[in-house]
Amino acid sequence: MVPARSESSSELRVLLHRHLYVEHSLRVRTDDDEVELAYFFFFFDDEVVAKAPHRLAYLVHESWPLPDQVGQPGGRHLAQLSMHCSDVFGYQQWYLFDTLWAATHPNLAQSLLRYAHHWDPLDD
Predict the structure, then answer these.
(1) Are 83 and 91 in contact, with CB atoms under 8 Å apart?
(2) Cα 58 off chain centre by
């Protein structure tokens, strides 16, 4: 039986939970013959996020851009860029931040650094 097509991430979540055993999160790694890709279905429940905020803060952050202020005078301490690379790969996001921003937003900083070098935020 082929499941119904989803029209939104909320519908996709319902379908995946209906047809798969999903415990806390679902992460998929695949090879499309040209490049390895990681697909994240961000179904991280509150329990997973509470256990690993330093790994998941960026992935569950609800808005873009990320906060750039640090609560001190001196302007912004985070530079953000969303750059179109190609029709195949779409956009890449770049973040540059200093130690003041990292100290003010430690979970976001640690999760960005983790996400930059590992496809799965929960894998050790």
Answers:
(1) yes
(2) 5
Residue 82 host element (H or E): strand 78-86
Global pTM reads: 0.61
Please, what's the b/e burial string for 39-59 (b: 16 or more CB within 10 A of its CB; e: otherwise)? ebeebbeeebbeebebbbbbb
Q: What is the phi/psi pair of residue 120, to 5°?
A: -115, 110
Would you say the C-alpha torsion 61, 65, 71, 72 has a positive or negative sign?
positive
Query: 69, 77 in Cβ contact below 8 A?
Result: yes
Tens digits of residue pLDDT in 41-98: 556 677 878 888 888 888 777 777 788 878 777 778 899 888 888 887 778 888 999 9
CB atoms within 10 A of CB 109: 22
Q: What angle, 0 to 180 degrees and rounded to 10, lies between the N-to-C axes of helices 106-117 and 53-60? A: 90
SS3 letters across 39-52: EEECCCCHHHHHHC
- Helix/strand/coil for 26: strand
Residues in the chain: 124
Amino acid, single-letter form, for residue 113: L
Closest CA to 60 of 111, 8, 14: 111
